[in-house]
């Protein structure tokens, strides 16, 4: 077990770790930058369109799910790359699985947005 902070101090340090992770994702991950910029455009749209509260929350949730999934995908890729540059079937499989998760998050987002905006 690692010694650590407790209570509010732990939350304070965890917040800075999270912000450092976001900065790293922005700096090194083109896909995250693209999706984050798309979210910056779509979040105001979610508040502008005529939709119920539940629909609006679903529009926003689909965007956050996409960003969360992309961050996890980037984390998997970083760990695999840290282990080694040589090809290994399990390394490739883990990267492909994480990429598939992003694909489904993106597909989910598209289905939600199209369904609410056009049907």
TrEMBL record:
Belongs to the bacterial diacylglycerol kinase family. Catalyzes the ATP-dependent phosphorylation of sn-l,2-diacylglycerol (DAG) to phosphatidic acid. Involved in the recycling of diacylglycerol produced as a by-product during membrane-derived oligosaccharide (MDO) biosynthesis. A divalent metal cation binds at residues 29, 77. GO terms for molecular function: ATP binding; ATP-dependent diacylglycerol kinase activity; metal ion binding. The active site is at residue 70. GO terms for biological process: phosphatidic acid biosynthetic process. ATP binds at residues 10, 29, 77, 86-88, 95-96. Substrate binds at residues 10, 31-35, 56, 70, 99. It catalyses: a 1,2-diacyl-sn-glycerol + ATP = a 1,2-diacyl-sn-glycero-3-phosphate + ADP + H(+). This is Diacylglycerol kinase. It holds the Pfam family DAGK_prokar. Keywords: ATP-binding, Cell inner membrane, Cell membrane, Kinase, Lipid biosynthesis, Lipid metabolism, Magnesium, Membrane, Metal-binding, Nucleotide-binding, Phospholipid biosynthesis, Phospholipid metabolism, Transferase, Transmembrane, Transmembrane helix. The chain crosses the membrane at residues 57-76, 97-118. Its EC number is 2.7.1.107. Its cofactor is Mg(2+). GO terms for cellular component: plasma membrane. Mn(2+), Zn(2+), Cd(2+) and Co(2+) support activity to lesser extents. It is a multi-pass membrane protein. It comes from Idiomarina rhizosphaerae. InterPro entries: DAGK, DAGK_prok, DAGK_sf.
């Amino acid at each position: 077990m690692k010694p650590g902070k407790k209570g509010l101090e732990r939350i304070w340090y965890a917040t800075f770790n999270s912000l450092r992770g976001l900065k790293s994702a922005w700096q090194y991950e083109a896909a995250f930058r693209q999706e984050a910029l798309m979210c910056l455009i779509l979040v105001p749209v979610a508040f502008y369109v005529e939709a119920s509260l539940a629909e609006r929350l679903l529009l926003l949730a689909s965007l956050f799910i996409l960003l969360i999934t992309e961050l996890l995908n980037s984390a998997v890729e970083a760990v695999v790359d840290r282990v080694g540059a040589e090809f290994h079937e399990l390394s490739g499989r883990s990267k492909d699985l994480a990429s598939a998760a992003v694909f489904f998050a993106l597909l989910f987002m598209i289905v939600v947005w199209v369904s609410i905006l056009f049907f």
